[in-house]
Design a protein that fits this description.
By secondary structure, this protein is of the alpha+beta class. It folds into 4 domains: about 90 residues, no CATH class; about 180 residues, Multidrug efflux transporter AcrB transmembrane fold (Up-down Bundle); about 150 residues; about 230 residues, Multidrug efflux transporter AcrB transmembrane domain (Multidrug efflux transporter AcrB transmembrane fold). The protein is built from 28 helices and 15 strands. A 4-stranded antiparallel β-sheet has the order 5-8-4-9. Strands 12-14-13 form a 3-stranded antiparallel β-sheet. It is elongated.
């Protein structure tokens, strides 16, 4: 009995839909008269005229709505096509986006644009290509930035300004550290010292070299009666006796100026510091020349002294390694990401022509975006390359939605042009909104403290808008002329998301509760995250630089330093005893801190000189007790130093301030900041007039993370507020707007918590990943919500609307998420740790966002959006549909 009744109902529903379609043709035929001949497309897809009989339209459309509403519940899932209703947009609802009421004039303008685009297809292609070429021409103006870790920070960063001032004051320059490590024993052997001596001499041949410091040329002083003898600690290594070796070892390990600076405290490793003055022009080539020479020199020494290993580290070597990492990302990962996305597109779209259209879109969007960077004069940084990966994914996502819309039309028997028009009408608003929200999300990166992220944000924001423009102009025209062959939809794909929709509506309570618990558990993992950014660990272990840096950190000394310029208050005041005592007290305070491995200051030299001129009596290893005597000691010592070994790197020209260096152990960013703040507090309490903060790349990086997080919290909040307001206006419902926000806010927090459980440490990427992810994940929510609201406007219940949304966009959302997720995961294979963390975190966030849109958002809608349905009522309806 039920089967017979259901068959009758289905027949009535089919008749209602057919009548509505005929009505549509009749209305369109009678009112198409305000468009030129070239814009008159097939009647069922032409915009209504500008002067219809509105009373007749309203009456007929009202009858159609009542008939459709009577049988809507039974027609769901039958496969009957829902007609396009031109009358709907004449009284406030646009046919392509019926859930969003728009002004009548705006709706007509949109249809006029669609008619113009598809009516003059080749003109559309020509204009699109001209715009793309004009933008792409800016690519020739892109400035390839000098790869330097300091480019991570703005030139107006107060800590960078202080660092530049310190380097100018003390004639500091770019430097590299070459570490020699005997495979057996200590460096205090004849063979090891010979190797270090030869290497020191050879390093003086480094291009642009200004100074080389090592244990063999360290200027050791000693007292001989009333004389001060200053000579290299190691004279002729080949002629050293065993007694000489023992003496050298004792001196080196007992001197704060040497131990932890040129020799490890256990004597097993020696360090050679090479300082160079790079030219202002073509610095990148100069860095390459210097580092190539250093690597070649180390290799030569390794061949000659096979029992000694060599490791290179330092900011100069890091900059060259970063250049290699960026080149590898662009030459390997970018093609890999593109290939992965295209393979996924071929598998999911099952169309080579559709994939070719995506390739054309990618070329247009990427060329336009790179050209935009050139025309605006922005610099392109290594981290900015992430923008290309994001734009690839955004472009593919837009293309997939447009292609799926066209494929749906072709399956219903429309020709290619009609199907392209249909896809354009259905997707133009969702694609526009997703492009706009993506742009808003990435524009929030302008609140970041680091220039690379600001460039990336602006580039993606502009590129996403380009992707929208090309997606609604170039892409539909291309698809309409391609010989697409779309197979009729079988039971596989439609049944998959139909069954999934049934599962979600039947298990809504369980899904809502279990996903809510998962949200709480994962977010709790955020408390396990430790912010840690070591700028000499920007590359992973696949790079020799990183392996060498890790070796140096574990076996020699820390690789990060704090630098202080301690002022005496007057010219020539550095030999005042009161000043020296305050500096010495500050040095001793730092040496007592557990976070510090080595401290060096001018007071170490003054103590040594006082001891030397008192017959090397250990009891006089203290500061002189007279300012004039201290000045004489220092002057005598400086006169005794050879050329190129002066104290200009420790004392300023006016002799009014001295430099103090603090070598840090491996610390988190919070620990670095806390240590500097404790030091400033100590200076304020114990050395009035000398208050100053630390500088150096270590403190700049730690402070930058703090400012980045503060700025990005503000930027992300503003972006979320704007997008939230936009969604509230679009959905014209506070309730639906708030519901739609939940799956946009939660995934980033869940991903960060999961990272806390799995990894525990995160660097600068953590401060921007939320903004990046938010700009992307809101897209899926918009597409799902538009289809859901459209179904609700047509009289369907919440559970029916959820099923309708899954059938409409389930496949497209899955495809775009796979594209985004795999694209970011490929980017996560970068050798640059920041890009690696950014790719993996963003990939995790996108995947979690899809789960939230599929498993969390639908139950929320069914629970909070109006009509409540019991499980039994839903089961009964599903049985009727299946029967």
């Amino acid at each position: 009995m039920h089967g017979e009744v259901d068959a009758v109902v289905r027949g009535q529903a089919a008749k209602a839909l057919d009548d509505a379609a005929r009505f549509q043709k009749d209305i369109s035929a009678r009112h198409v008269r305000s468009f030129p001949k070239h814009s008159r497309l097939k009647l069922e897809h032409s915009p209504a005229g500008l002067n219809p009989d509105y009373r007749q339209v309203r009456e007929a459309d009202g009858q159609q709505r009542r008939r459709l509403g009577q049988y809507a519940g039974n027609a769901v899932g039958t496969g009957f096509p829902r007609p396009i209703r031109p009358p709907a947009f004449l009284h406030g609802g646009h046919p392509s986006f019926p859930c969003f009421p728009v002004r009548r004039s705006a709706a007509l303008t949109m249809d006029a644009c669609i008619a113009l685009i598809m009516g003059r297809r080749w003109l559309t292609v020509l204009v699109s290509l001209l715009v793309m070429l004009a933008l792409a021409a800016g690519a020739a103006r892109v400035v390839e930035v000098d790869v330097d870790v300091r480019n991570h920070f703005g030139h107006d960063d107060p800590h960078i300004v202080a660092l530049d001032r310190l380097e100018e004051t003390y004639a500091l320059s770019d430097a590299a550290l070459v570490v020699a490590a005997p495979q057996q024993g200590t460096i205090f052997t004849r063979e090891a010292l010979i190797a270090i001596e030869e290497l020191t001499d050879r390093l003086w041949q480094t291009p642009y070299v200004t100074r080389v410091d090592s244990i063999t040329n360290y200027q050791h002083s000693r007292g001989l009666e009333d004389e001060l003898i200053v000579e290299p600690l190691v004279g002729d290594a080949a002629s050293l006796s065993d007694e000489d070796l023992a003496r050298i070892g004792k001196i080196a390990l007992g001197a704060e100026e040497i131990a932890g600076r040129f020799v490890s405290r256990n004597g097993r490793v020696a360090g050679l510091v090479v300082s160079v003055a790079l030219p202002d022009e073509d610095r990148q080539s100069a860095k390459t020349e210097v580092t190539d020479f250093l690597h070649a020199t180390a290799a030569e020494s390794r061949e000659k002294h096979a029992a000694i290993d060599y490791h290179l580290t330092g900011e100069l070597v890091l900059n060259r390694a970063m250049r290699e990492a960026i080149d590898e990302d662009m030459s390997i990962l970018a093609p890999a990401a593109l290939g992965t996305m295209l393979v996924v597109a071929v598998i999911l779209l099952r169309s080579l022509w559709g994939t070719l259209a995506i390739v054309i879109m990618l070329v247009a969007v990427l060329a336009s975006s790179i050209g935009f960077v050139g025309w605006t004069g922005m610099r392109f940084f290594g981290e900015s390359g992430a923008a290309l990966f994001v734009l690839m994914a955004v472009t593919v996502a837009h293309s997939v939605h447009m292609f799926e819309g066209m494929a749906a039309g072709l399956r219903r028997g429309l020709d290619r042009r009609q199907a392209a028009v249909q896809s354009l009408r259905v997707n133009i608003w969702p694609v526009f909104l997703t492009s706009l929200t993506t742009a808003i999300g990435f524009l929030s990166l302008n609140f970041a403290d680091m220039p690379p992220f600001r460039v990336m944000g602006n580039m993606v924001a502009f590129g996403s808008l380009c992707a929208f423009v090309y997606a609604v102009t170039l892409l539909p025209v291309i698809l309409s002329v391609m010989p697409l062959r779309i197979r009729p939809s079988g039971t596989g794909e439609s049944d998959l998301f139909d069954r999934f929709g049934r599962f979600v509506v039947l298990r809504r309570t369980v899904l809502l509760g279990s996903f809510g618990v998962l949200v709480v558990v994962l977010i709790a993992g955020i408390s396990r995250i430790e912010l840690k950014e070591n700028w000499l660990e920007l590359l992973d272990e696949s790079y020799e630089f990183r392996r060498s840096t890790d070796f140096v950190s574990q076996n020699f000394a820390g690789v990060e330093t704090y630098e202080y310029s301690l002022g005496a208050g007057r010219e020539g005041g550095i030999t005042d005893i009161d000043y020296l005592k305050r500096v010495d007290a500050f040095v001793e305070w730092y040496r007592a801190q557990p976070e510090v491995s080595h401290v060096f200051a001018i007071t170490d030299i003054m103590k040594r000189l006082n001891r030397n001129l008192h017959g090397d009596d250990p009891e006089f290893d203290i500061l002189p007790d007279d300012s004039d005597l201290a000045a004489q000691y220092l002057l005598l010592y400086e006169f005794s130093l050879p050329v190129g070994r002066d104290l200009n790197n420790l004392i300023d020209v006016e002799r009014s301030s001295t430099r103090m260096t603090v070598v840090l152990r491996s610390l988190s960013s919070d620990e670095k900041v806390a240590l500097d703040e404790r030091a400033q507090t100590w200076l304020g309490e114990n050395a009035p007039g000398m208050e100053t903060g630390a500088t150096g790349v270590a403190v700049v990086g730690a402070r930058s993370i703090q400012r980045n997080i503060e700025g990005m919290l503000l930027g992300t909040f503003i972006a979320m507020a704007i997008v939230s307001l936009l969604l509230l206006l679009v959905f014209r419902s506070v309730r639906l707007g708030i519901i739609s926000l939940i799956p946009n806010f939660v995934p980033a927090a869940m991903a960060m918590g999961l990272w806390g459980y799995l990894v525990g440490e995160v660097g600068i990427a953590a401060s921007v990943v939320t903004a990046i992810a938010f700009g992307i994940i809101v897209d899926d929510t918009i597409h799902f919500m538009t289809k859901y609201v459209a179904a609700r406007k047509n009289g369907l219940l919440p559970s029916e609307s959820v099923q309708s949304a899954f059938r409409s966009v389930g496949k497209a959302l899955l495809a775009t998420t796979v594209v985004f997720g795999l694209g970011f995961m490929v980017f996560g294979a970068s050798g640059m740790v920041t890009n690696q963390a950014l790719g993996l975190l963003a990939g995790m966030t996108v995947i979690i966002a899809l789960l939230a849109d599929f498993l969390f958002l639908p139950p929320l809608l069914m629970v909070l959006d109006g009509t409540r349905e019991t499980t039994e009522e839903i089961r009964e309806r599903l049985r009727r549909e299946a029967g």
